[in-house]
Specification:
The structure holds 2 protein chains of 2 kinds.
Chain A: H1 14-22, H2 25-29, H3 48-53, E1 69-75, E2 81-87, H4 89-93, E3 97-101, E4 126-127, E5 133-139, H5 142-149, E6 153-158, H6 165-171, E7 174-183, H7 186-192, E8 195-203, E9 215-220, E10 226-230, H8 235-246, E11 253-257, H9 272-285, E12 289-292, H10 295-301, E13 308-316, E14 322-332, H11 340-349, E15 359-367, H12 382-400, H13 404-411, H14 444-454, H15 457-470, E16 474-487, E17 496-503, E18 509-513, H16 522-534, E19 541-543, E20 546-547, H17 562-589, E21 596-604, E22 607-612, E23 617-621, H18 622-631, E24 637-643, E25 648-650, E26 655-657, E27 661-674, E28 680-689, H19 697-715, E29 747-752, H20 778-789, H21 806-828
Parallel strand pairs in A: 1-12, 10-11, 14-15, 18-19, 28-29
Antiparallel strand pairs in A: 1-5, 2-4, 2-6, 3-5, 7-15, 8-13, 9-10, 9-12, 11-20, 13-14, 16-27, 17-18, 17-24, 21-22, 22-23, 25-26, 27-28
Chain B: E1 2-6, E2 9-13, H1 22-29, E3 48-56, E4 62-70, E5 83-85, H2 111-118, H3 128-144, H4 153-159, H5 171-179, H6 200-207, H7 212-218, E6 220-223, E7 230-234, H8 239-248, E8 253-255, H9 262-266, E9 274-277, E10 287-289, E11 293-297, H10 302-312, H11 314-321, H12 326-331, H13 334-339, H14 347-353, E12 357-362, E13 365-370, E14 375-377, E15 380-381, E16 388-395, E17 401-408, E18 419-430, E19 433-444, H15 454-460, H16 467-474, H17 477-480, H18 491-510, H19 523-527
Parallel strand pairs in B: 1-5, 7-9, 8-9
Antiparallel strand pairs in B: 1-2, 3-4, 3-5, 6-7, 10-11, 11-16, 12-13, 12-16, 14-15, 17-18, 18-19
Helix pairs in contact in B: 2-3, 2-5, 10-11, 16-18
The chains are: A alpha+beta, B alpha+beta.
């Protein structure tokens, strides 16, 4: 630490950290421990000082080779067309252009679909979205390459495109088969219910808008392979696909990524095409190649969050308790399967959000459209399912004239009613999801009760009603929405991880694992795990770039699983090294008449403490001990491995336990809406979130806040717009508006749920945090609907799609005004 | 030849092409990759750097005043005589010598940097260099004005309005901004860290009178990159030089802030082989307040005119906070906004409503015209080849006149309007309340050019100020405009919201103390129980 200022080095949140620590048995047992930076402490991001000084190196910042080539790609001009002819003569003749490749130049596999086929690295004949790569230009500079691309002459046979989910549904035009979850008899329950309503909504997609665009840099190796620097969440997949397009074995390709400038799911599969194209060019020319997409190309060519069209039909009793439902979620997958099967699955798994659906049928369609292939994005389909559940809650509340929070609480999992019984007459536990998993950890009822109190929900509700009664066109809205999010890859085999830990003879430690750092703080959290295991200061540990040569066959850093998986793998590696060290200590320090039990060798406070049976304690500084162990020929390096237990899912029955556990949270948001213009603004948000026992409260809080604002952006200002030809019109930050600094609420209270360690044996009983809070942004959308509903005295919930742009909100306002007018007329008649 | 100070070293450049952006120059020619490209269009702020201009105070002493600008939409051509600081050199006073690998011995983080570290203000870190530079500009502003108080919420939002962060949700960044003034270095200079100043002797060198005539004639002749043979650029210091250049090179493009033209290079991949940077012509950078009008030079940046507009046209001043970002306002000019004739430029509709006139100048002489006659068609104006926009004259408001300005966009900060509506009402008081005795309007986003709604103006004439009367008059707006549907809004929404805004005008005119706009609210106002929303007075 090179601090020259005289401020405390710790941040204001330290009190929280101390509380967290106190709840940890290990720390209580060992009050003398003063080593810095173990789990539970607010440690800064491992690259924080490098970030603020511009010294953190991203792929585009690496020194360039003098003979390095730059790529620009020419894409399809039509959403659906067959290529008749391609003339690239003028492209090739451009001064500064070194090579131009088409699909003919691919030595190996053309299809680079990550799970299912359908993604050609370059188009062969059929173009399926505007911007789909047809050829790539390699030139001395990126500017030359871009200018040359414009000189291509391509003739097309234009075919009719499918551009909407509705059309795809009508034509049964799917990228993968439809899947269904069924629990009980939903049709009968709907027929029997005293109340029954239907609703639908369009949920638009979302551009990732990672600040660092897609980029990679490749270098041919002497073995006929490639060294690839790729801004990717999934180095192993990049490695495999590059090997396949080059037709070489996987061990010829090495992929490295130190850090990404944001990922959010957008670099899970979408980074691979760039690396493949660059590798093909590098292979052909023998020169290093960099391919960095301009922001425009990135927005047009790469996949986004799936837009969904969702419908529900729900039956409920007079209390608003759901008795049966028929739910459809239809994802717009774009032109290829990519990860869409799992994404629509996750939308289905989360269409209940936190509520017991009882008898239900949930159907998920994977619609094909001639747009870019939609892909992973924080929440992975979950948010699109959750918002439907919240739509239902709001609509039930309006139908009954109740406060939406009351309806939400009544429908929570685990809330039992004496009169609601199962077929065999038992009180229904109301804790089984529509896919058969039991909700074991009953966190939300308490969490919501606490948030209700700390946010003054009911008092503010009363104040808001008064405000709205007196305000002619500015209206306030309030909403509390919870989230219950399943943690684990729903594809079972991905739930594994590896790590590599070296201890060097000076006591310094090197840590590497399969997870990638994209800003989420994974590297510091896993380093804290290692610091915890060896009980050494965090700055003893050096983390290095994720590299396929260090830890092989890794899963993507996705599904919020980075810390759960890699933290456990790193811990496993530490345990293996420690076992050898302990064995050595027992042998080395024992004497004939004073032996040592293994459990009496302790790692604490940067020391190794060896307690002999006589009671004598030998305290050896960690570095000295390591040196002794080295001299004693003890292995000081180990791999580690982890696989998530308990999970299974049977696709044939649509039943199983796809998730190891659930993470929870809830948010209360208050908005102000101008009903003359449709503009809205978030005024205050209170969040209470469940991260189990936090490994790093500051990092976790950052994830919660960032995810919430990103979720809010998805549902308010971020509007993807295509024209009738399938061309993305919102193709830059001038037309696509992610939240800016003024969109953060004036009052933003974020707390971690205290004293609720994970019921499952995760890494130190923490919980995943990357995705779940994204869905808390739904509270803003619901609050806007609440403000609009005030116009009709909360008895009408006007349909409102997402995002709730001013235009969308004003439409909802008009709809509400029409409802009032029609109701008044009906009463007159 | 361009001479500027880069991180403390004066550099002379004669070989960069005319349309080389500062960002590309830093990253590719100076090996300074700390400054990032997030969008290349001035929308994300990852490329923010500090640009310093030397101002001479009353005692004749020069100090360098720094402000944040976007490196991606600034041309190197615009930097003549300026001082530039990038994130790479903010942390320490030790020099980063060009071409010399010199290890920085003691890295002392700037307060903006240290606060960002301590308050967990960075996650992926990619936007962070830009955020740090915007915060450093804010810190420097406070320091220069000897203000040891932390910047208030409004100043912080304003300073960061052009910096997008996708990871944090901004809360920790705002907190860092609120706390950075607590940090100080060990030098004890009033508890504040000064951004260091270019060395005096070199500074003097930069002040040495240039052979202006020779430079003007010769221009900067740049061997350009592979795609074209030559490019030229000039940085004239007087209008006479500018006129001579325009006569000699009628095809040359003029840039003041370049915040719009630069997009042609970075987004459309066009080249600008002949470029005249007019940002150093002093006579175009004047603001004159006369008895009946305010004259704003075409080269005055938005940041420079803020105080004047706030004083004389508060609603116009308010609009500026939502006009682009702080970085763009530091470089962009009203002259540019008028001359590029965008149908969605934010200031022309306001200037139309205010009845502004403009002055065009050329070697052949000067001429004045009402702004309403300047716009001909989409991106077409009265400006002839060889002419430049010199001055904008805005009549001042009389006591019985009210200006109302509304901007509708998806996002509050740094967004382009779907609709911009501006009204200048002249009101007479009578026993029944107020009546409209005259009204002029200007609309953006409703037609191919910024345009007045003449039928609406007639319909509002002599109407009482009431929501009902204004709503009725607003119906004729459909005869004034048939707006287009595009990525920002549909035709129907544009029309409806414009009509609704006319109603809102009536409410605001009759309830002047009410809170009526979501953007003007701050937290303290909202938490008041007695919020005056003017209920029942409409």
């Amino acid at each position: 630490m090179r601090k020259l200022i005289d401020l405390p080095t710790q941040t204001p949140e330290n009190s929280l950290a101390e509380n967290e620590q106190k709840s940890r048995p290990a720390k209580v047992k060992n009050p003398l421990n003063t080593s810095k930076g173990q789990t539970g402490q607010n440690m800064q991001h491992e690259s924080a000082e490098k970030h603020v000084t511009g010294k953190a190196v991203y792929v585009d910042d690496m020194p360039e080779y003098p003979n390095q080539l730059h790529i620009a790609v020419g894409g399809s001009a039509h959403a659906h067309a067959k290529i008749k002819s391609i003339d690239l003569t003028s492209v090739r003749e451009t001064l500064g252009v070194v090579d131009v490749i088409t699909v003919e130049d691919v030595p190996g596999h053309v299809d680079i679909g990550p799970v299912f086929s359908g993604d050609p690295v370059l188009v062969e004949k059929l173009c399926e979205y505007i911007g789909q790569p047809i050829f790539a230009v390699a030139a001395e500079t990126m500017e030359i390459a871009k200018a040359a691309v414009a000189k291509a002459y391509i003739e097309y046979d234009i075919l009719e495109p499918t551009l909407s989910v509705e059309k795809a549904l009508k034509d049964q035009f799917f990228v993968r088969p439809t899947h269904q979850h069924k629990r009980g008899d939903s049709a009968q329950a709907l027929a029997d219910a005293p109340n029954r309503i239907q609703g639908e909504m369009q949920v638009n997609g979302q551009e990732h808008f990672y600040l660092e665009g897609q980029v990679c840099s490749v270098l041919p190796t002497e073995d006929g392979g490639m060294k690839v620097y790729s801004s990717t969440q999934h180095p192993t997949e990049v490695q495999k696909l590059v090997a396949e397009v080059l037709d070489v074995s996987i061990n010829k390709v090495q992929v490295e990524i130190r850090r990404m400038g944001g990922g959010f799911g957008g670099k899970e599969t979408q980074a691979a095409p760039l690396a493949c194209i660059a590798a093909i060019v590098a292979n052909k020319t023998g020169r290093p190649v960099k391919y960095r997409m301009s922001r425009h190309d990135d927005m047009v060519m790469t996949g986004k969050r799936h837009p969904f069209f969702n419908t529900y039909d729900v039956g409920f009793d007079e209390q608003g308790i759901m008795m049966g439902s028929d739910i459809m979620v239809a994802g717009n997958c774009g032109n290829s399967p990519d990860l869409s099967d799992a994404i629509v699955d996750r939308a289905m798994f989360h269409s209940d959000n936190a509520y017991y659906l009882n008898n239900s049928t949930v159907t998920g369609h994977r619609c094909k459209t001639h747009t870019t292939s939609n892909t992973a994005y924080r929440g992975f389909g979950g948010p699109q399912g959750v918002i439907l559940a919240e739509l239902m809650m709001d609509d039930i509340a309006r139908h009954l004239g109740e406060d939406p929070l009351t309806i939400r609480k009544r429908n929570l999992y685990g809330i039992k009613y004496d009169h609601i019984r199962t077929a065999d007459g038992q009180v229904d536990e109301r804790n089984q999801t529509h896919y058969g998993q039991t909700v074991e950890q009953k966190v939300l009822p308490e969490l919501i009760a606490e948030l209700e109190k700390t946010s003054d929900y009911w008092q503010r509700r009363a104040e808001i009603k008064e405000f709205n009664a007196n305000s002619p066109f500015l209206k306030k809205g309030l909403a509390l929405t919870p989230v219950k999010f399943g943690i684990s890859f729903t594809v079972q085999f991905l739930n594994q991880a590896g790590a590599l830990v070296h201890v060097y003879t000076d006591g310094s430690i090197h840590l590497n694992h399969g997870g990638t750092e994209m800003g989420q703080g994974l590297f510091v959290k896993v380093a804290q795990v290692v610091a915890e295991e060896f009980q050494v200061d965090l700055d003893t540990i050096q983390v290095s770039a994720t590299n396929t040569e260090k830890v092989p066959n890794t899963s993507p850093t996705a599904a919020s699983s980075g810390t759960d998986l890699n933290g456990m793998a790193a811990r496993d590696a530490c345990l293996r090294i420690k076992a050898g060290m302990v064995k050595f200590a027992v042998e080395h320090y024992a004497t004939d008449n004073d032996v040592i039990q293994e459990e009496n060798v302790r790692f604490e406070n940067n020391n190794v403490v060896i307690e002999k049976d006589s009671g004598e304690e030998v305290v050896v500084p960690f570095a000295d001990f390591v040196q002794q162990a080295y001299m004693g020929r003890v292995p000081l390096s180990s791999t580690g491995f982890y696989k998530t237990p308990k999970i299974h899912y049977d696709r044939n029955t649509g039943k199983g336990r796809p998730f190891y556990y659930y993470a929870h949270g809830a948010a209360v948001s208050e908005v102000l809406v101008d009903t003359l213009t449709g503009e809205s603004r978030l005024v205050r948000t209170d969040i209470l979130h469940d991260v189990g026992r936090s490994l790093n409260p500051a990092i976790d809080k950052g994830q919660i806040e960032g995810a919430f604002i990103q979720g809010m952006g998805w549902l308010t200002t971020e509007e993807l717009k295509w024209n009738d030809e399938g061309r993305l019109m919102s193709n830059g930050p001038a037309t696509y508006k992610i939240p800016a600094v003024g969109d953060t609420p004036f009052e933003f209270n974020v707390s971690l749920l205290k004293d609720r360690p994970n019921g499952e044996e995760t890494i130190y009983r923490s919980k995943a945090v990357g995705e779940p809070p994204f869905m808390l942004g739904i509270s803003v959308w619901s609050a806007i609907r609440d403000a609009v509903a005030s116009l009709a005295d909360y008895h009408y919930g006007a349909p409102m799609d997402a995002p709730a742009t001013p235009e969308c909100v004003l439409r909802s306002v008009q709809d509400t005004k029409n409802f009032i007018r029609n109701t008044a007329q009906a009463q007159k008649v | 030849m361009i001479r500027f100070c880069l991180n403390g070293n004066w550099v002379e450049e004669s070989t960069v092409s005319s349309d080389m952006t500062l960002l590309r120059y830093l990253r590719t020619q100076q090996a300074l990759p700390g400054t990032k490209e997030g969008c290349g269009s001035g929308d994300c702020g990852a490329c923010s750097v500090l640009l310093g201009e030397r101002s001479i105070d009353d005692k004749g002493e020069g100090t360098w005043q720094y402000q944040a600008i976007n490196g991606c939409i600034t041309f190197v051509t615009q930097l003549d005589g300026k001082s530039l600081i990038t994130v790479d050199a903010l942390a320490t006073k030790a020099r980063l010598k060009k071409g010399v690998a010199k290890e920085v011995i003691a890295q002392q983080l700037h307060p903006a940097q240290q606060a960002m570290v301590d308050y967990h203000g960075s996650q992926c870190g990619f936007c962070t260099p830009g955020i740090v530079m915007s915060l450093a500009a804010l810190h420097e502003h406070q320091r220069i004005h000897k203000n040891s108080e932390p910047a208030d919420h409004h100043q912080i939002i304003d300073a960061l309005s052009g910096n997008l962060c996708r990871c944090t949700g901004y809360r920790p960044i705002i907190e860092a901004a609120e706390n950075m003034n607590k940090y100080h270095n060990n030098s004890g200079d009033a508890g504040q860290v000064a951004i260091w100043q270019p060395e005096p002797e070199i500074e003097t060198k930069s002040e040495a009178p240039l052979d202006v005539a020779a430079e003007t004639t010769a221009g900067l002749f740049h061997p350009a990159s592979h795609t074209d043979s030559v490019s030229q650029s000039w940085s004239p210091k007087s209008e006479d030089e500018l006129k001579a250049l325009l006569t000699q090179y009628p095809e040359a493009r003029m840039v003041a802030g370049a915040t719009d033209i630069a997009l042609e290079v970075t987004q459309m991949n066009r080249r600008l082989p002949q470029l005249i940077a007019i940002n150093d012509i002093v006579s175009l950078k004047t603001i004159t307040v006369e008895d009946d009008a305010i004259l704003i030079g075409a080269g005055v940046t938005y940041s420079q005119m803020e105080a004047t507009l706030n004083e004389h046209f508060p609603e116009f001043g308010q609009l500026l906070h939502r006009f682009a970002s702080r970085q763009v306002r530091n470089n962009g000019t009203m002259g540019g906004n008028v001359a590029n004739a965008s149908p969605i430029g934010d200031t022309p509709p306001v200037l139309l409503a205010l009845g502004a006139c403009i002055e065009l100048a050329s070697a052949q002489g000067n001429r004045w015209m009402p702004l309403s006659e300047f716009f001909l068609d989409y991106k077409k104006t009265e400006q002839k080849q060889g002419e430049y926009l010199r001055m904008i004259r805005i009549p001042r408001l009389q006591d019985n006149q009210k200006l109302k300005v509304y901007k509708i966009s998806k996002r509050l900060e740094d967004d382009i309007s779907a609709v911009l509506a501006a009204f200048k009402f002249t009101l007479v008081e009578s026993s029944n309340g107020q009546t409209v005795s005259a009204v002029t309007t200007g609309f953006g986003g409703m037609a191919g050019i910024p345009k007045a709604a003449s039928k609406l103006e007639k319909a509002l004439l002599n109407k009482p100020v009431s929501m009902a009367a204004f709503a009725e008059a607003a119906q004729v707006l459909e005869q004034d405009f048939s707006p287009m549907t595009d990525v920002r809004a549909t035709s129907e929404y544009r029309m409806q919201v414009a009509q609704n805004l006319i109603q809102k005008c009536a409410f605001e005119l009759s309830n002047p103390n009410s809170i009526t706009r979501i953007e003007s609210l701050n937290n303290s106002e909202l938490s008041l129980n007695e919020v005056n929303v003017g209920g029942g007075h409409a």
